[in-house]
Amino acid sequence: AFMYFRGHYRSTGRLSSSTKQSGEILVNGRRKSLSYGNSAYVTQDDVLMATLTVHEAIFYSAQLQLPSSMSTLEKLERANSTIKEMGLQDAVNIRIGGWRARGLSGGEKRRVSIAIEILTHPRLLFLDEPTSGLDSAASFHVMQRLRHLATSGKTIIASIHQPSSDVFELFNTLYLLSNGRTVYFGAVGRAREFFASNGFPCPPMCNPSDHYLRMINSDFQKDMDIDIEGVQTPPLTTEQIIDILADAYENSEVMSGVFNRVNKLSKKHGTGQEIHSDHANFFTQVSVLTVRSFKNMYRDLGYYWLRLAIYISLCLCVGTIYYKVGYSYGSIQARAAMLMFVAAFLTFMAIGGFPSFVEDMKVFDRERLNGHYGVASFVVANTLSSIPYLLLISAIPGAIAYFLADLHHGANHFLYFVLTLFSCMILVESLMMMVASIVPDFLMGIITGAGIQGVFMLNGGFFRLPNDLPKPVWKYPVSYMAFHTYANQGFYKNDFEGLYFESNIHGSPPISGDSVLRNDYQVTMSYSKWVDLAILVGMAVLYRLIFFWLIKLKERLRPIIRSELSKRAALKIMFLDPRAA
């Protein structure tokens, strides 16, 4: 157990593979990297897909983590044995649950998180505060399972705060750290003797872990009376107590015993070879992630089903307001307004799925840092799994609005209408995924996405005609960056070309749709509507590629940011206690 107080130390989670490291990593006295398959890391927070059952979550993870050389049946057996090992048989068909719906208890979620990380049978298992947020009973149950894993040949290293006396007794070795100094590292049973011999005996009926942390916690400076070999000494501050204990440990038999054991392990003969666990191949990862994501989208009502209901309601409103819009002179403006609403405001509603995007990104971040699969697999699978739903929420509401308004007749015109709406939907989803990769906060992400779409909407050619836009910035380049420009023009061409409208001047010939496009809406007629659709599809692909590169960039920048934060924390510690340097 690795125990420390929260004041100056914060667990930063698993470091990226691109993080620069110094020093040596020795396993049994031999140099080894903590590579995938050799070690596993369980985060403090249980970041899991709330819609999956326990069996689904662990089996999907097994298919992603275990090599392609293993058959699906072997992976299923590994998942089932892991479920049994963590005592989750009774909850195997229960959904994990989250803030939207109840599911597993906190202790069960923690055991699911552990089960996912031990599927590859790692030799080293690191856990970041595995009892955090759990009551005493759940904490004991989780730690008891970990103790069982330790007896099966795994080395378990856990950071922990204020464990109960029952939990504390489950540990074999204790490491106490304060202000960057080792206060104690050795057998749990000898810690009480160590503290007592240095004048800090654990009071009767007191939890030893509470007593140890109280002694080394410098957040709350206090004076304390101590008794060394029966001699009462003046009160000491916490910093003085830490100095006494740290100095005593450096000259203790406990520390000598630790170094002797390390030296013995270093002299042992062996190959020293590392166990490397290969992942599933790219196509397996994509197929498994696509199925998992598709199932998550199907079960999460807020992902697409709620949006589908809202879209249907909106399109019923639009269709009835513009019902059989006709071919009068006034219908020209009405058609343009309706098409603009579909291109702008229906797609704008895609921001409603942003909370679900953020949850997906949290799961991806955890699984990616733990080496389960690559960025490309995630981006491709997320795209493939969302296509059927986006096509559904484009076709059904689109058909309602299109036929109620009685727009341009013909199957090819309706098909173009649905394809353009679908392209806009997937484009906006790509935009919101880009935002989710940068801004992980629900509220800030929705505001950011809405702001970007608002700017694009203003420059899309409806509120201000293209030739009337100020050329610096707004026309060049913003109007060309806005997908609304191509969506509006494609919709306009699809509906107006080939139609004729009544003139507002009595006795004048009908007005052709082509002249309306050229003169009234300043639509570029040098290329067909299919080019506008192709541009939208290209922008959707480009946005997905940008999403991919943003994730890669984030992975590169994360170690740099953490390094700077660590330096600041170290400077703060040195400022508070120069002896820590």
What report would you give on this structure?
- By secondary structure, the chain is an alpha/beta fold.
- It is built from 20 helices and 14 strands.
- The chain has a six-stranded mixed β-sheet.
- The longest helix has 48 residues, at 529-576.
- The chain is elongated and about 110 Å long.
* CA-CA gap between termini: 25 Å
**How do the strands of the widest beta sheet line up side by side?**
4-5-6-1-7-8
Question: If you average the pLDDT, what whole number results?
Answer: 86
Q: What is the C-alpha radius of gyration, as a whole number of Å?
A: 32 Å
Biggest beta-sheet profile: 6 strands, mixed
The overall strand count is 14
Strand content: 5-15%
Low-pLDDT segments: none
Structural class, please?
alpha/beta
The helix content is 55-70%
Q: If helices are DSSP runs of H or I spanning 4 or more residues, what is the number of helices? A: 20
Q: Name the overall outline.
A: elongated
Secondary-structure map with pairings?
Elements: E1 2-4, E2 26-27, E3 30-31, E4 39-42, H1 54-65, H2 72-85, H3 106-117, E5 124-128, H4 136-151, E6 155-160, H5 165-168, E7 173-178, E8 181-187, H6 188-197, H7 208-216, E9 227-228, E10 231-232, H8 238-250, H9 253-267, H10 282-299, H11 301-321, H12 329-348, H13 354-369, H14 375-405, H15 411-438, H16 442-458, E11 472-473, E12 476-477, H17 478-481, H18 483-496, E13 500-501, E14 511-512, H19 513-520, H20 529-576
Helix pairs in contact: 1-2, 3-4, 10-14, 11-14, 12-15, 12-18, 13-15, 14-15, 14-20, 15-16, 15-18, 15-20, 18-19, 18-20
